[in-house]
Amino acid sequence: MSENNRKTIASPVPGKVAEVKTKPGDQVKRGDLLLIVEAMKMYNRVLTPYDGVVREVAVSAGQKVNTSDPLVVIEV
Amino acid sequence: MEFLRILRVMADATGIYNFSAGNLVMICFGILFIYFGIKKRYEPFLLVPLGIGAILVNIPGTGLMDVGGLLHFNYLGVEKVIYPPLIFLGVGAMTDFGPLIANPSTIILGAAAHIGIFIALVGAKLLGFTIKEAGAIGIIGGADGPMAIYVSTKLAPHLLGQVAVSAYSYMALLPLIQPPIMRLLVPRRERELAMEQLRPVSRREKIVFPIMMIILVNSLLPPIAPLISCLMLGNLIRESGVIERIADTLGGVFLDIVTVFIAVAIGSTMSAQNFVNLKTLEIVVLGLIAFCTGTAGGLLAARIMCKLSGGKINPLIGSAGIAAVPMAARVSHTVGIEDNPYNFLIMYAMGPNLAGVLGTAVAGGIMLTLLGVH
Amino acid sequence: MQGIIPDTLSGALVLSAFDFVACFFVLWFFGLIINLLKRLG
């Protein structure tokens, strides 16, 4: 299995992880909700653009994140 | 009949006996504001105290708004222009100007979205307001509460209530006002555009920015010095990073408290004799026109920038140029995400949004200068 | 100081046009200056 199959979902906004809605091993489809990042008092739904299996969740609820910080790694 | 006379005297002293229909209308508006704040969660920080102010001032006989009354003392904070700079101090302390520094080209949108100010100004003149009144009414379109209060205090203090109430209400109602205009003026294809990532902004840039703006803006436009100085001082306190406790307090607790004071003060201008007249209706309508045309102006300018840049700018961020930080940026983001759930416009929209604050300040400053007010 | 804009409709038009254009210009100028910040790195 090559590294090329692993896609990293990065945080689209600077903010705080409000809720993690996925865990390693989960089967996800394009458009599934991965986690919610709070920024500017808004809850932003981070969706997966890929079908695949969640391999890694790099953050936990309450954690501060910056734009392009890795959130979730998905194996396509 | 002593007893009846006592009753009569008592009745005269109560509020109920002195209520006018106008008072009841205004109290209903007060309740409506509170309803929108609590039930609909439209800017509850503003609308709840605003509604309470409006209710209080329409209960006859309390003397709260007479000289020496509680609300009158509070109102002096507005009349003597104490609260608006304090609000800006707090706003500065909680605002990250990074998105503006990273993408200064979007600053132009902050000017384009202020066409609404001038459309409302000319409209007000056509309706027979004096030019100073028209200027104060126009500034509603700046979608910036403290700036609207500041300018109207200087130009037309007797219209302060109407101007401030319109500005704050429309800012709270932005999520209802802007999206239809945005969907109408920006085709879906352009609404879906994703934008290039903003470059990271260094701490040094963020520290130099407020100092530079204080010198630049204050020497160019002295009439707005109190507001810009406080905004940038607050921002410098934040970005210096060495007095985080003060920055957190200013941008949080302090700002909340002053907002309550200022909102009650504006509410307390909504007495029936002040408000129940045709002028109020005209101002409210002109204010709405200013918001709508400003939104449209920002969107159209952003569409031009989109074309010129070869699709690098999502035109939806244009409407944020109206100011109303951060509500208008949130609206850009929310509308954008409806068409492309992977598109996070919020930080891009903050650029023109912050530029909108500068735009309102500049437009107001020039207006004050031209009208000979200091 | 008395304003130089007369209290007439044409006064309002002149005020609006001038203010709008000047606002554009001033913000554009701010944009240029802010762009210089990049060099600070």
Automatic annotation (TrEMBL), chain A:
Record bears the keyword Transit peptide: no
Species this chain originates from: Desulfotomaculum copahuensis
Domain of life per record: Bacteria
Name of the protein in question: Lipoyl-binding domain-containing protein
The keyword Cytoplasm belongs to this UniProt entry's keyword annotation: no
Species classification: Bacteria, Bacillati, Bacillota, Clostridia, Eubacteriales
Domain Lipoyl-binding: from-to ranges: 1-75
Coiled coil region boundaries: none
Keywords for this protein: Biotin
Automatic annotation (TrEMBL), chain B:
GO molecular-function terms, A-Z: lyase activity
Subcellular location: Cell membrane
Superkingdom as given in the UniProt entry: Bacteria
Record has Nucleotide-binding as a keyword: no
Ribosomal protein keyword on record: no
Transmembrane segments: 16-38, 45-61, 81-100, 107-127, 167-186, 207-237, 249-271, 283-305, 354-373
One GO-annotated biological process of the protein: sodium ion transport
One family name in Pfam for this protein: OAD_beta
Alphabetical keyword list: Cell membrane, Ion transport, Membrane, Sodium, Sodium transport, Translocase, Transmembrane, Transmembrane helix, Transport
GO CC terms in record: plasma membrane
Bilayer topology: Multi-pass membrane protein
Protein name, entry field: Glutaconyl-CoA decarboxylase subunit beta
Organism of this sequence: Desulfotomaculum copahuensis
